[in-house]
Every structure is written in C-alpha cells, then in structure tokens.
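Notes to self after the call with IL:
- keep both proteins in one doc
- input above output, always
- annotate only the second one for now

Protein 1:
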Amino acid sequence: MKQLHPIMFVGTGSDVGKSIVAAAFCRIFRQDGYHPAPFKAQNMALNSYATPEGLEIGRAQAVQSEAAGIPCHTDMQPLLLKPQSDHTSQVVLNGKPIGNRDAYDYWRRGERFAMNGEQIDFRKEVCAAFDRLAARYNPIVMEGAGSISEINLRDTDLVNLPMARHAQADVILVGDIDRGGVFASVYGSIALQTPDDRKCIKGIIINKFRGDMRLFDEGRRMLEEICHVPVLGVIPYFKDIHIEEEDSVALATKNVSPSHTSPLTPHLSQVSVAVVMLRHLSNYTDFDALERDPRIHLFYTNNVEDLQKADIIILPGTKSTLHDLYELRRNGCAQAIVRAHREGATVLGICGGFQMMGVEVSDPDHVEGDIERLPGLGLLPVSTTMNGGKVTRQTSFRLTQADHVSGKAYEIHQGETLPFGDAKPQPLALLEDGRADGYFVSPQCMGSYLHGILDNASFVDFLLKPYATRINQKAEAFDYQAFKETQYDLLADHVRRHVDMQRIYQILQDND
C-alpha cells in the first residue's frame, strides 16, 4: 500500500466527537487494506486500560486500536493524566505511574520539569513514542485534545498542532454542529492559529448534524469561503451505533431510571442492575456489555430509594476509594446497599468497589489523600491497605465456584486486599498465573479486581443465575465481542458515506 501522511483529528472543543471519528478512520483504513494505528500524545481520563504488556493507556486509544485490528500499546498514548482531585493528577508515562502533579505546575512548566528527582522532557517522550509507532504502521490516525484554540496554553501544548508539526500530519478540524455556534467555533479555531499552524489544517468535518442534510449546503459553501479550508464531510448524528467512550461527559447520557420497562423488549422480564454513581468513578465501560444485554435493565444512581429497587447492585471502580467511601457513608448509600443485600439483592464490587465492600480500607502512607482509614461496608471479610505500587495487566480467569465460567479481563489498581482477622481465603477467581483474585461469600455477595469481567458472557450468566426463573429462557447470552466488531463496521460505513474519502486520500498522498 502507498505510504500515507499521518492524519490528525483536532476539535473546536471537548466532546465534539474526535475520538469516535478517529476510531471510524482506523476501521476505514483497515478495511481499505492499510495497517493503521491510533495515536494521542497526551490524554486526561480516568477510564483506562491495560495493554498486553501490563501497562496503562487511556481507553479511547484501546478502542481505536481494536477498530484498527491491532493490540494496543503505550506508544499509542504515551502520556496519561488521571485526575485525583480538582487540582492534582497522577502522571502515567509510557504506561507506568511516575508520581502526582499539581495541575497549575504541570501546565505552567510544560514539557520539562522534575518528578521524583528526575528531569523529564515530556515533549521528547511523546515525540519518540510517535516515531516508534510511525515506523511500524501506515497511516497513523492521530487525535488532538480539547480545543485547538487554547492560545494561553500554546507554549506547553504537547498534543495538538505542535504534535502535528512533528508528525508532519494533515490536520482535520472537527466541529460539533449539535451544540450550536459551529460557524464561530470553526472559524475562530482556525483564525487563532499561527500562520504556520494554519497551513497544517487541510480540511473541516462537521459532526453530529441533525435533520435534512440539504439545509447545510449553503452553510458548507460559506464555511469554505470564510475559512479557505475545504469541508470534507458532514456526519449525521447517530444513536444506533454504540462505541465505548472514554470521557466522563458520556456519563451524563447514561440511564438513571430504575424502571424495569424496556420499550425494545417489553416481552422480557428484566433483571434490574444499579451501578452506584461515584464521584471519582473510573472505567465505567465495564458496564457497556450489560447495557446491551436484553435480559438486563441497567441504570446509574446514588439515590437511596432507587438502590432499594435493584436486583443487583454493582460498586464500580474509583480513582479515590477512600474519598468515595466517605461520600457513600455521608449520603446514606452505604447503609442502603447493606440493607438491600440483607433483603435479597446481589452486591458485586469491582476494583475500588471490591475494596469498599470489605471491613476496612486504610491508607497509612497517604497514597490517595488525607484520609488514613475508614470502615467499609462489611459485606466481605477482607481488609485493604493502599500502597504506592500499581498493578496493571491483562489476564485470563476461571471462577472457583463454577469451572465452566472463564474469560479474559484486566487489572488496574493500587492497594493490597487480604482476608480480615481469622477469615479464610475464598477467592472468586483463579488467574492464568495461579494467583487468586477477589473474594466470594455467595453468588449474591462477591468482589473482584478484574475490570472487563462483565464483558464475558459466562460470568454474566453466573451473575444472573439467581434470577433465572424471571428471565425469558429464549433470551440468549449477549456476545459483546461480536457486537463491538459489528459496531466498528457500522461506524465506518456511516462515516464513509458522509465524507469525501477520495479527497482525503488525495490529501494524505499530496507531496506539496
């Protein structure tokens, strides 16, 4: 195949659809016979993923690599910032945490400053990661971050136009017409660039269009006239294609109603599953498979009354276990979860949620913050101690209570969880290297460190077994992996229909 220039999708703002558009092009290039790979120099997100090497990257690039049909790698996303509070973030470089950083200090000092006594040049690190990736794949599908017009941060920007210049990438600006003001946001984003950066922008894509496409024909012509950049496509808004999202903004669109009624499957008696909404909730893509399962009605809540209506309550992962545990005790959710379990509800904890289900969580070295110890929910006879080490790895598992239940998952966590007092070990699962994971009290009370465990149909069947008599027996287990592959193809088809691929290929091969 011909060598193509790298292509970078940047935005007029956050949540305009850059990640989804980049995923679409990863799949399009793969369909067209190329060997693409995604790249985002720096990301800020709590929703992360473990690579096959046991390192950590943002979830969006893991999704894009899946769309491209290749294993994810830290070179696809070398710098990850995981917010721990409104002012600090854990810094993950090339898949490994290297310390915490104050946001003001980070953005003011930019690419060079000391962490843990070592001088680190972040710009050099992210450029080296791109170079390694570009030597192995064609083309590189790059993604910017936020808005490209944050001119106050231009000198320390590692991810947008400075990265495009290093990569010699063709830049496509994505604007969200659904939020309004698309003319001002697109024109302003281009006008605020330096002359050299403006030359990098080779096209515009208008995203999330609703209504009759013909109504924007004049708008398209006007944008090209005032911006002197071609509009390469207008992509309609869609609701029937489901791609995992990384930004916490997506949580606002999640279902919050405990109602069992499903307009799509009114003939089924669904099991009601509540995911406890935590302030620092992470890896909420753990529940995407459950959202699509016709046997399940899934909703997110921190409402005490709604928790009482759930058949199954899931305590999810969190970046700040102790702070979220404190909040659950303050708002009454902790007591409501214990009461619901006593009255027959299943409670499952994943990662930080597993830690919360124990007798206590302690942080003597202040790894997470200023809270040294809190009592847990007391549903599992375990105790967790936070420490500076971080476990990140992909693994296979097999349940100890059901030999036929197995699958693949991944770990991203801090802290060590052990049986409390004289409690005997009762692991939920055995991992491929012989290690034990989690704790099992009963099919209606268990916890695990395994993210992605709910992507495995056999484990979901195990979770639903106590409610089998209420589920229509014709409702089949949901194959999430096959579902995701279908969604990538649908996304690629949707985008391909509404962008000028011939012109994009011309731009990516143009030597001028």
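Protein 2 (the one to annotate):
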Amino acid sequence: MTPLDRARSLPIWTGPVHAEPLGGGITNINFVVRDARGKSVVRIGDDIPLHQIMRFNELAASRAAHAAGISPAVLHHEPGVLVIDFIEGRTLTAADLQQDHTLDQAITLIRRAHQTIPHYLRGPAQIFWAFHVIRDYAATLRDASSCHIALLPQLLQDAARLESAIGPVDLVFGHNDLLPANFLDDGHRLWLIDWDYAGFNSPLFDLGGLAANNGLSEDQQAHVLNRYFDSSPDPDLWRRYRAMKAAAALRETLWSMVSEIHSELDFDYAAYTASNLSTYRASLADALNT
C-alpha cells in the first residue's frame, strides 16, 4: 500500500475522500485529505531512531500543544500515522519572521509553549540535549563512512567548547525544530506545528534555533532575548545564548549529513547541508568572539 493509499483508507473518513500531497515535509510524507467533515492533514512516518524521532513522543507533545492552545487538534493516530486538524492559513518564511510584528507573535507563542505544555503532557517524556544528538550523529556518520567524515573531529571539538560555555541550564518543554515552515499564520494568530523533536531542553535552544534558522539580525536577537526574559540580556546570557545558537546550527547541519545517507525522501539534503554548514560557521565565529 502506498502512503497515498494509506492516507485515503483511514477509518476516520466519512463520505467521499480526496487526498493530495502536502509539500514541505523532510521527515514525514504529508497529505491534505478532504472528506464530509472538512480538511485534515495526514502525517505518515514511522519512528526514526537515527534522528531520535519516536512517534509516541510526537503524539503526546501534539496533544499537549493543542490543549495549551499552541497547535491544531489531533484527530486520529495509529502506528505510523498522525492526523491533525487543517489550519486555513499560510506557512511562514524566514522573511516573515524577520518582520517585527510576526517575530513578536512567534516569541510570545514560543514562551507560552515552554511554560504551558508541561501542564498538559501525559506519559513518558523525552529530553532533547543537542550535544548528545551531535555526538550520536557523528557516530552514525563515522559508521556509514560519510563523505563528511573528515570534518567530524573539528566539529566535535567545537561542540565540546560550546557545551562547556553554556554551563547549567533551566529546563522548559521545547519544540526544538523552529524552522519557518513549522509556523502557520491563519490571518489572526500563529500556530506551531510538527512536534517530532519535542522534549525538555534549555529555552536557549529554541531561541537560538529561531535566530539561526531565520537569519535574525543582531538587533532582532537582542529583541528576542529581551522580550522572552522580560529584561535586557547581560553579557553572561549573551555568551550562553550564542553558544547554544551555534549548537542549534551544528545539530541541523549534522541532521542533514545523516539524512544525505539514510533518507529516502525527495529532498536536496546535500544543498541543505552546505547551507546549514555556512550558518553554523558564522554562528560559531560569533560565539567564540563573545
């Protein structure tokens, strides 16, 4: 059965069923399905241990995020399938998140997610520590004789320096994948979707990932920290934030390197690796010059 056939044949549909691919997924195959009820999004994907993606965790986080008013409702789930309510709106771009009004909405949504989702979360919960992920990705790349293997010793040395610079952290429930495509704008408010990597983490990872993934300027990053923490960032916060921002960019780079080898989705991972490696190197230089 093809993914499209599986999406069409789910037991929740009533009346005529129409399904079509929904672009943008780089860890899932996604469809928009219309039936008598309306539109839904079907996400098809099994556990991906290489990326620490466990679907029970995505389901629990998605349900808690909906209860917290952050994300659309979960309508159905079964092994390898998650169905969520369709939000009429548009997917954001990095250019959108560079606009002051949209950025402020995003910061408010992120802080609300961090603070409120734990009150609704049920069952086992994961920790997402970027430096464990980085070390695990490096081992996967070595095992597979990746074409990037020569870069790994320096990248791991960089990671150790960044982890030391961050020091002790506070824990919140993080999204941990703040790409622009994971924000939706329905014309009235923003929604945060795709909880594949959700787990307890430092808030600095989401804030740093937001900046690294969306090309935020220095002034915008200062605004993010000021608005999130309700005070101007002091030198220590800047140092720890810049180290975590570099770590977020490094994790995304290694994610793409692993995906070059193991993913079967139709996506240009090599180009994505090159783009993220450039972002990481700029972020690292910024962190080390603090």
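Annotation: The two ends are 54 Å apart (CA to CA). The longest strand covers residues 29-34.
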